[in-house]
Structure formats: C-alpha cells, structure tokens
Fold this sequence. Notes:
The mean pLDDT is 91. A hairpin with a 2-residue loop joins β1 and β2. The protein is built from no helices and nine strands. Strands 1-2-3-4-5-6-7-8-9 form a nine-stranded antiparallel sheet, with no helix packed on it. It has strands at 5-9, 12-24, 34-45, 49-60, 70-84, 89-104, 108-126, 129-140, 151-158.
Amino acid sequence: GRAAFRLPIGSGSFEVGPSGSWGTQDGGGNGGGKMWFVGVDAELDLSRLDLKAQWIRGKAPGDELSMAYSLDLQNGGYVEADVILTPMIGILGRAEIRDALVQQSTERLYITKNWRATAGLRLIFNPQAVVKAEYSHNGEYGGTPSIPDDVITTSAVMAF
C-alpha cells in the first residue's frame, strides 16, 4: 500500500508518500515466511524541472522447497533530476545506491554494495517521437570487488 500527500506549488506540485508491503513471497509456498518492504518517496514537479527521490528497505525469507531466494535489503534508493532545457531538449541526472544480500539456501550468496551515477539526454521531436541516450557509471563500495560494468544505452520511442 501507499499513502501520499500532494501540495500544489504554482503550476506544479510536491508529493511525498510512505509505502509498504507484507505477505507471502513470490515463488514461496503459502505456508512460507512473510516478506516485507517499507519506503518513502517524494517528487517535486515544476514546469521545467522534476526532482524525484525514493528510499526502501526490506526482507524476504526465501523458501528452501521452491528455491525462492532470500533477500536482506539494508538500503536502496535514488535521487533524480529531469530538466527541460528547450521544448526539444531534456537532460537527466540520477544517483542510486543499493546494499543487499541475496541468498539461495546455502549454495548461493550475492552481496550487493553498489552505487550508480547516470546522465542522459532526450530529444523530443514531437509527443510521439523521442530519442534518448544515457550513460551509467557503476561503482562498488564496502570491499566489494569492482568490475568494469559501465553502460551506454540509446533508444528511439515511437508512440501511436
């Protein structure tokens, strides 16, 4: 579930809301343990600037029988800014962090302590034709081994 409070600001708005979930994990049996997640998000929407942020944490017990993974999400979150420079050109900047342990029985353990910084450009030819390009620099912290895993993506979006 999620609750939110929205405050009008000029022609824009500010919204903040807590959220949470609790229940049986996907892939886990009906008698399995319960997973839970809690978080909060916020968004400032102005005419040429959108600022967004979210923080989340939670746990899922996993299930030996169905081999569902357990998860211990200590912290996860992001902050993003989207700016419209001209009616055709938009840019974005995003920073993310994740600190989690994922495990499947005693056979597999995945330790995630990573951060990501993303910069992007958007060309809006009309509401039905947009071209996007993004570069993401990925990094690890807390003694987690680093690997070269930066990413460049492009896309052309056509809406009909």
